[in-house]
């Protein structure tokens, strides 16, 4: 008998390439350790005597990836969403994040955050914490204890920030390195990530320093790019020497020198897009937040056409939904508005396309994640969509059942979750 092999059976659906659904009805997926060994419609002879976890007529899909999530803003979901970005930050976000100097408050909220991520099927996440190293380390610990995968960043802010949420440059660098040392080798699936909030709140000295930390500890980088017209004008005023917003990050070593993900990317000009493609920067597309804060509609099709990797982000609490399935539907809806606004020249997204963004597209930031191709880490959701049936007489294809779950299903339909080959039960934190 093969050691370390799991066998799972169901209707297997994934996207090995953008827009291409692969469907294996009533098939077997073999997992060896953490990774997929293969998919078979009939079990090979050497495995026929092994135990099979038979999920019967369920859908088995890759786990959802959230490439942009502000964990400390969780309590603010649904608040201030009649404002634009900068006043929303000042009135709601910064005062809430300042509370995370209190580790007891941070722990209470972060326990709820991690449980919600698990509940809605997010198996990998790129999280912003706050400037507070202890609270951010607690978030990383809770994600790891829950069995989820991700990156968690201690935020850096040393200028243009309220007194309740600002660091000196020296303290920001010291606390960031302390945080990295305490967490970088502690857990296998959850790691630190360098996290300048955005250019307006980070001095040149700070950006230079954290870029050195990214190189020293071989860490990825996450931040925001070209989200709002007022923000872009502010960056131009702060850095008139730079051609555009992206080139500010680039000149300080925070734009592709290490693996990098930038959220929003709504107003990228052609020069920025070229630099993003050359630097292999990932885009976190956050359609809920872009709508809620009246920021705009990102040209995601253009990013993809230029070879830029794209995933989806909930962007809680600019986005009010934790569910990446909901984010998928919003990505389709805003792409249809973009299609109409461009005289139907920029094609709107399809279910297979946004499903790719929610799985393999975002998963690529974490390595071989988000697909069921051989060698990929087995992150999966098992979907029992029987409650969505109106009549037992209706017989839908697996593709249509996937679409229906994405649009009208919820966490009740997720009956099992796997991360890196391990089944993940509800967190007991």
- Proportion of strand residues: 15-25%
The average pLDDT score comes to 97
| Total domain units | 2
CATH fold group of the largest domain: TIM Barrel
Strands of the largest sheet, in order across it?
3-2-1-4-15-16-17
Classification by helices and strands: alpha/beta
What can be said about the biggest beta sheet?
A: 7 strands, mixed
Can you tell me the residue ranges where pLDDT is under 50 for at least 5 consecutive residues?
A: none
User: What is the alpha-carbon Rg in Å?
Assistant: 21 Å
Percent helix range: 25-40%
Q: What is the CATH homology-level superfamily of the largest domain?
A: Metal-dependent hydrolases
CATH class category of the largest domain: Alpha Beta
User: Architecture of the largest domain, CATH level 2?
Assistant: Alpha-Beta Barrel
Q: Judging from the principal axes of the Cα atoms, what is the shape?
A: globular
How many beta-strand elements? 17
Counting DSSP H or I runs of 4 or more residues, the number of helices is 13
Which sequence of SSEs, written as H and E, runs from N to C? Answer: EEEEEHHEHEEHEEHEHHEHEHHEHHEHEE
Characterise this structure.
- The protein is α/β, with parallel strands linked by helices.
- The chain has two domains: 5-63 and 371-423, Roll (Urease, subunit C, domain 1), CATH 2.30.40; 64-366, Metal-dependent hydrolases (TIM Barrel, Alpha-Beta Barrel).
- It is built from 13 helices and 17 strands.
- A hairpin with a 2-residue loop joins β2 and β3.
- α2 packs parallel to α3, α4 packs parallel to α5 (204-216) and α11 (324-341) crosses α12.
